[in-house]
Each structure stands twice: as C-alpha cells, then as structure tokens.
Design brief:
240 residues; alpha/beta; Uracil-DNA Glycosylase, subunit E; 2 domains; 3-stranded antiparallel beta sheet; 9 helices; globular
C-alpha cells in the first residue's frame, strides 16, 4: 500500500474518532512525515478532511496577519483584531471593524456594544465562547469610522478563509457595513434585517449592530426576532 493511500486512510480514521487537527513538523514534506515525529511549535497546522486533503485552520490564517500591510489601516493599529471564539462554532457573527477598546485588547466586541451582543447570545442559550466573532476589517479605522471599500477588499479574503475554516451553520452580520461588504450588495439594514441570504452555501442573517441598538433601544425587539430565527434554524431550545 502506498504512503499516500495510507495517509488518506489515517486521515479518515482520525476524523471519524474526533481528531480534527494534525500538527506537522516545520519544513517537513508530506512524503517525509512519519507518525510519532517530534512536533515543532504550530508552524504548520492542517485539518484532515475525509478526502485526506489539508484544510487551513484559524491558527494558520492568524499567523499571516501578524505583520499585515495590505492596506493603510496597519499604520494606526495597536494590534490586529483577528477574531475570538469557538473554532468549530455553529454560529458566527461578523461586525464592521474594531473600535478603540478592541484595538487595545485585541478582541472584537469588548465594549458596551459587546456587552449587548453577549446579552443577545445568552438569550438563545449560548455563551460567547460557544460562537465565533470577527469583523470585516482586522485593524481599527481612524475615529472608529466605517471601513472604506478598498480597506474591506484588502481584508475580506482573510474573513472568507475564517468562514471556510470554521464552517459555521449560520453567519449573522451585524449592521449595514458587514451585510454589504460580506455579500457584495448595497442595501439598507432597516430593509434587509431578518431576511435570510446566502454566501458560498452558508446561510446569512443580517441584523442590527448592537451599537445602533444602544442609540435606538426601541428597535431591539427586531433583533430579538432575528436571534429567535437563528435559534430556530439551529434547533436550540426555546429562550426562557
């Protein structure tokens, strides 16, 4: 039996028993890798698919972003705000971009808007660590403004790769900026929230950004409807 076939059989078996990540020695070729070889720090991380092909992981994508210079936002950032949460999350949220507090701490949605998002997540029986949260851009736009089309274009490939690595069952966009850049449309969030869309085979549900709700509390009932729709699609227990 060839080594290639053996590796594919091993990959399928590992997947079936619940092993999702295989770390390879740095610089090792696939033909020269042996089971039980000493592992270097996570310089190369691969996830075995049933076909035996390697699928990139969040750690690999994050590594590429450490010194990203693809757009001018890099000049003013304190840190790259990559994303946070469960790498196998069923539900993923996509916002606009990091604010000052997120830029300082390196984590998305940590201010008042983040607390409101956490409340919505808890209402459908999940915790922040159960979901995955990311943004259209990974660096803070000056003055917390919306990202420009060129800035979004530079960063969107990373977000697309995050979605493919996580493979969520649902992506929920927060606000008009996330909706329009992720789906490549020009729509008003007040008109499109609560309407199911799709991107690369993944259901997408737009809703309001929590910062908008902090200024427009009367519209929070619409967000609750959207989260209930997400919970229903994920077959989560009814909210208490």
């Amino acid at each position: 039996m060839s080594r290639t076939v053996s590796r594919r059989i091993l990959a399928v078996w590992l997947r079936e028993v619940g092993v999702d990540y295989v770390m390879m020695p740095a610089g090792a070729s696939s033909s020269g890798t042996t089971v039980g070889a000493s592992l270097s720090p996570v310089s190369t991380v691969a996830m075995a698919s049933p076909s035996g092909a390697a699928v990139e992981t969040l750690d690999g994508i994050r590594g590429e972003l450490t010194d990203c210079r693809r757009c001018p936002l890099c000049a003013g950032r304190a840190t790259v705000v990559f994303g946070v949460g469960n790498p196998r999350a069923r539900l993923m949220f996509v916002g606009e971009g990091p604010g000052s507090e997120e830029d300082r701490l390196g984590e998305p949605f940590v201010g008042a808007a983040g607390k409101r998002l956490d409340r919505w997540i808890a209402r459908i029986g999940l915790r922040r660590e159960d979901v995955y949260i990311a943004n259209i851009v990974k660096c803070r736009p000056p003055g917390n403004r919306a990202p420009t089309p060129d800035e979004a274009k530079a960063c969107l490939p990373y977000l697309s790769r995050q979605i493919r690595a996580i493979r969520p069952e649902i992506v929920c966009t927060l606000g008009a900026t996330a909706l329009n850049f992720l789906l490549g449309v020009e729509e008003k969030i007040t008109r499109e929230r609560g309407k199911w869309r799709e991107r690369d085979g993944v259901p997408v549900l737009p809703t309001y950004h929590p910062a908008f709700i902090l200024r427009n509390a009367a519209r929070e009932t619409e967000v609750i409807e959207d989260f209930d729709a997400v919970a229903s699609r994920l077959r989560l227990p009814p909210a208490k």
